[in-house]
Structures are given as structure tokens and as C-alpha cells.
Amino acid sequence: MNDEADHSLEDSDDAPGWDAIEAALAPIYGDREPMHYGTVLPMSLGGQDPLQGISAYKNLEPQPHYHFVTFGFSELYEKESDDPDVSGFGFELTFRLACGADAPEEPPHWPLNFLQNLGRYVFSTGNAFDERHHMTLNGPIALGEETDITAIMLMLDPQLQEIDTPNGKLKFLQIVGLCTDEHHLIEEGYFDAVALRVEKTAPLAITEIWRDSILKDPKTLDEITASEPSTNQSEVFGSIAQWEEADGKLLIQIGATVVRQLKGILKNVLSQGESGVVYGKGSGIVFQPGDGVEWEVDEGLLIVTLPPELAAALADSMQAERGVFSVPETDLVAIEVLPVDIKDADGNVIKTVG
């Protein structure tokens, strides 16, 4: 990515979506020029970076931080998608990273790679983000930093919210960093209680990558878990969600990085009469409760019906390691866990899960 002051199309009529984003930022930053990192060769033209650019503002209020804003999840130029009411994927991402008051105007570059990596996931899978989504990062948010921020959740950016553009609506979804144990608690159904406390660790839900977990004080954990879980995670985003059918039997294949979340769906979501889904690259697997074991493929989605007690037993059998997991109660369905390579911004494998 290169530093640029403006987008590549200087005529504002050529980039109405881009101009709408800049107009939304104007009440906050006025005519200040951000540090802008434009993509020389975007993915749409054969490059590796899906986003057209990322702007970063150093903001001293109400606490010093860098405010990153993406350009490219929405339709920046002419309207191309079929939905007239939504621009592209319907969102842009923002990220607020704490810094010192005397920090330079130029931000650290790891958030740029981080945001582009999220872009690669969205563009390669077609899975759009939304408010209240959360996901593990399978490692520290910033490689080489001493941090326990290993997951994220999404909320509306408190200053930008949602806007109308000539190409449709878009939300500004702010990334908020989560410590490992905070995300585990969210996966257990305590999203609202955890999110409320995390957002209060800094104004505007600024992410401080060196902060302690809100659960460092045992009393906080007791307060949160004193009530029943209010929400169970019903959507899981991974890289592998595929299946094979042979001789009237179904083999479901998922990546090792989503085993924990899938176990929660099978044990907690189906038992409440609800459905859950695991998304992969261009595919998805829906799990729903029912009286027997059935499955069908509908518009690219595999829909699997399982009795809740069978689903729970299947969950108990699964491990986050390579292997095929099944239960004695049925030979109709099994789950194969496949290893997943975690890569850095340059595509180098830094570890393998499973």
C-alpha cells in the first residue's frame, strides 16, 4: 500500500461512495488530511489487497488514539450490486488504536495489514460482518507484541454510525479488541455483559492492546455468570465448511479453528430449538434441531437436521485436532476436523491449528 492524499479518481462524480465516506468523516476531522494508504493494485485488478485504501487520523479526543477507516467493502464508484438499498457488503470497518499524546501522526502499519486480512476473508468467502459479530484471531492481534488481545467484536462506530450513499446504505462497524478469556465468555452466551464492560475500558471503545482482561478481578466473572447466558453464538466464521456424501452417509468437514464454536452450537443452540451456521469460503453448513437425522443442499448451503441429544453427543466427541469424530448412536453423519494454517500479512505460515 502507498501513502496517498486522495483516491485515484479525482473527479468526485466518479467516486460517489468514496465521497460519502469522506463526508461522514468531515464533522469529526474537518478539512484535516489523513494519512491515507492506497492500494496500488487492488484485488479486483489482480492484486493481493481487497481494499482500495485505508485512512488513519490521529485523534487526541477524548483519549489519544489512531482512527482507521477502510474504503472498499462498500461500492466506492459506480453501482454494481443488484441490491439498490445496500452499498456493496453494506459496511466499512473502523478501528481505534490507543496511542500516546506525543505519538507521531503516522500510525503503526500492522493495523493496515490486519484490516486487509479481514478484507481477504470477506472477499474470499462472501461472508459479511455486522454488529455483534465476534471472532477469534487465532493469535495476537499484532504479531510480535506482548498482548492478550486475540479476538474481536464488532459494534457501530459511536461517531460514524450508519449513512446513506448514492449506492445504498452502509454501516461503519468498529473493531473492538477482546482478551482471550473475554471471548471465551462471549462464546458461552454472555455477549452483552462482556461487551458492556469492555466498551467501558476506554472512551469510544478504543482498543488498548496492552490492557488487562476485565476478568482479572474474579468478582467480575462472578457478576457476569450470576445470570443465565442471554445469547448463544449461532454464526461461526471460518475458512473450511464443506461436505462429502457417499453411500447414504454424510461427512462434514470443518477447520480446527472453529471447533470450540461449533461445539457451542451443537450443545447450546440446538437444545433451545434454534439453528446455527458455520460459514466457510463460499459455503455454509446450517445445523437445525429435529426428530431425526436428515440433510439437504439448498442454494449452496448444507442444511443438517439433528436431534438435540445426538448433536450434544457429537459435540462432546469433537476435539480441535485432525480426525474424524462420530457417535455410536448413528453412522449416518460424522464430522472431520481439518488443520488450518495461520498466515502472516506476507502469506507465510506462522502456525498450524489442528
TrEMBL record:
UniProt cross-references to InterPro entries, sorted A to Z: SUFU-like_domain, SUFU_N, Suppressor_of_fused
Q: Which SUPFAM superfamilies match?
A: Suppressor of Fused, N-terminal domain
Coiled-coil residues are none
- What are the boundaries of the signal sequence? none
Q: Which domain of life is it from?
A: Bacteria
The Suppressor of fused-like domain extends over: 47-211
Q: Name one GO cellular component term.
A: cytoplasm
Give the protein's recorded name: Suppressor of fused protein (SUFU)
Record the organism: Bremerella volcania
